[in-house]
Amino acid sequence: MGQTAYRTHHATEVSEALVGQKVTLAGWVDRRRDHGGVAFIDLRDSTGLVQVVIYDEEVARPLRSEYVVQLTGEVRERPEGNENEHLTTGKVEVVVEGLKVLAKADALPFQVSTALENESENKLPGEDVRLKYRYLDLRRPAMQYNLKLRSDMTKAARHALEEMDFTEVETPTFIKSTPEGARDFVVPARLVPGSWYALPQSPQLLKQLLMVGGVERYYQLARCYRDEDFRADRQPEFTQLDMEMAYVDQEDVMAMAEKVIAAIWKTQGHEVRLPLPRISWQEAMDKYGSDKPDLRFGNPIVELTDYFKDTPFRVFQAPYVGAVRFEGGADTPRRQFDAWQEWARQRGAKGLAYVVFGQDGELKGPVAKNLSEQERAGLKEAVGAQNGDAVFFAAGGRESSQLLLGAARVEIADRAGLLKPDEFAFTWVVDFPLFKRTDDPDDDDVAVGHSKWTSMHHPFTMPSADWIDSFDQDPEHAMSDSYDIVCNGEEMGGGSVRIHRDDIQDRVLNVLGIDKDEAQEKFGFLLEAFKYGAPPHAGIAFGWDRAVSILAGASSIRDVIAFPKAGGGRDPLTGAPAPISDAQRAETGVDYDPDEDE
Ligand code: ASP
Hints:
Layout: E1 22-35, E2 38-45, E3 48-54, H1 57-60, E4 68-77, E5 92-103, H2 127-132, H3 134-137, H4 141-163, E6 167-168, E7 186-188, E8 196-198, H5 204-212, E9 217-225, E10 237-246, H6 250-266, E11 278-280, H7 281-288, E12 302-303, E13 320-326, H8 334-346, E14 353-357, E15 363-364, H9 373-383, E16 390-396, H10 398-415, E17 426-430, E18 435-437, E19 453-455, E20 482-487, E21 490-497, H11 502-511, H12 516-529, E22 537-543, H13 544-552, H14 582-588, H15 594-597
Parallel strand pairs: 3-5, 6-9, 11-17
Antiparallel strand pairs: 1-2, 1-4, 2-3, 4-5, 7-8, 9-10, 10-22, 12-13, 13-16, 14-15, 14-16, 17-20, 18-19, 20-21, 21-22
Helix pairs in contact: 4-6, 4-13, 7-10, 11-12
Bound molecules: aspartic acid.
Aspartic acid is lined by residues 180, 202, 204, 458, 494-496, 539-541.
Domain Aminoacyl-transfer RNA synthetases class-II family profile: 147-564
Catalytic activity: tRNA(Asx) + L-aspartate + ATP = L-aspartyl-tRNA(Asx) + AMP + diphosphate
InterPro entries: Aa-tRNA-synt_II (IPR004364), aa-tRNA-synth_II (IPR006195), aa-tRNA-synth_II/BPL/LPL (IPR045864), Asp-tRNA-ligase_1 (IPR004524), Asp-tRNA-ligase_1_N (IPR047089), Asp/Asn-tRNA-synth_IIb (IPR002312), AspRS_core (IPR047090), GAD-like_sf (IPR004115)
């Protein structure tokens, strides 16, 4: 990293090659140990640790954890038996000749020392404390690693995109609403009392305008804002790697996006084999009970609706019956099966029916006695189970049953240790429906219009070629040209071919229940732009925080964001959101009432 006014070397640059030489280092006191009048200090900087030895007690005495020091000393080999193979600098140490305290540190709210890194993360304080003192939390090597990885990924993505002749363009964040299915954050406009800017849920409309504007290949690392109810791994503001291209189709976009994925995964030494596999949305739902299937393991859901079509068992007399195999589940104690019931109830299901195939092949479990002789006889084969397995069933509505079985499938794999964070199973999910119902209780997206249909992706998504003429007659079955990229059961990105004709856009808005006036008011500027020669265009956006967290193997996207929000959108560090003063209120015009003005 090179020399500065404060140091000749970084900690991890101190190596055997420097033995006998003088170095000047600067960093934090990570830990100190005292051995009979000699103090050993781990000095930490952004590269890692090096051990320094202080023989002068006067010098060592005042030093505490996280003091910032600058020191000069001679590099020597560690005495035999004192090497530390866990450290890159473990064969050497620096014998201090001069040391200056650059800044003191108060008693810490929690231990920052890297000694923690080899122990359980449980030693860390609760997340609120970590976020309140984020600047301390960030000193931990795990966090330094995540931020560096993020930066490396960004560099690689930029490079890959520049190679493909993309132009990076910044779009404004004070805009008119862009509907992506969430609520807008809004900002009062002081100069136009009673008027508000919306913060972009994504740069969607702006990037489409860039296509009309002749920028044929655009990208941006865009900050997006969505005011959603709190969900575990979401942030109210987040980053997208956003791309849009003109004169392309779905295949072109997918091929270019794959190159970006391969480039960013390569930064960590992973070769991603291209082209990536694909699965249709319908197949993903049928086999994996999810539109973002985790394909690190198999074990697809088996549909048994036909198998049970004449069943005497009332529960299975349903529009859909499916099952998922629980390999080796026969040994599961009764109370654990009870816990599975609770698990299912938490997902809004009534329970999780199951059978067990004993080692001797005998069929047991609460459901078994309700089945006909014939059903019992063929079940093992129908589900692809073995003796010693258990099988979970769901019966009822197709989608809700599939979602439950899909979640059970992942839970079974998780408990069996099959969800390895350093294995990456990518898939494109393609052939999405164009619309979804607005009355789905499991869906908390905000409908764009006022009909029973809302967009599955967003209102600017092109119906697939077969549906261009008829999508508005049969919104339930209409398909779209959209695609999601999924890795390890997480949606890493998504995009679509866009509508570039105002007549098709009008008809889609019509299905969504947005009439001409409202359309004009909301996105008249886009519809107008389409009148002046809009090229065919398509794009995609990667959820950048999510992509980084997947590659980093982080358990939460908060671990790859320098200053994330805590639950409820709070920032424990700065105290945002916070009340504003009366004077500020008056000035911003938030209380402006047009009626009073008249
Ligand atoms: N704007 C979309 C989103 O934020 C992505 C895209 O269609 O490019 O999900």
